[in-house]
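Annex B. Sample input.
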Amino acid sequence: MDLEAKKSALRSMPHGIYVVTLRRGEERCAFTATWVTQTSFEPPLLAMAVRSDSYARSFCQPGTALALHWLDKQQKSFAQTFFKPPTVEGQSFGPYSFQDGVHGAPILDGVLAHVEGIVRTVVEVGDHHPVLFEVVDAKIHRLGDALVLADTGWKYGG
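Annex B, continued. Sample output.
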């Protein structure tokens, strides 16, 4: 296999840029994600990949409430804030405020849209673990063009 071709091909796959928030008891966690896809209509299921050795991965357990947030093309710095675990103070992650969702996941203010979900299963294989979650609530906050990896100049994967 041509490893450079493989890397280039995989890096050219289109990916959205999302911020994921989770709640475990009174603890909250947030991170930026790019590997997300819908896997089922009924029930509505999404999957995302979470780095296996990350702090966020410890939150991804069956039954955990999470929210997946769409950002607009102008929110690159918003996404960057969540590359490392942000400080949680009251109802904010660093400079970004949130409200608790229907099932308790933090819902960030200022995003295009969000879905709230419940983690159903985690597949523990590879350096990123696929996390499957069921969508239990959704909201469009405003219209706009979603931020995608190609808009940022960042490279991830391959």
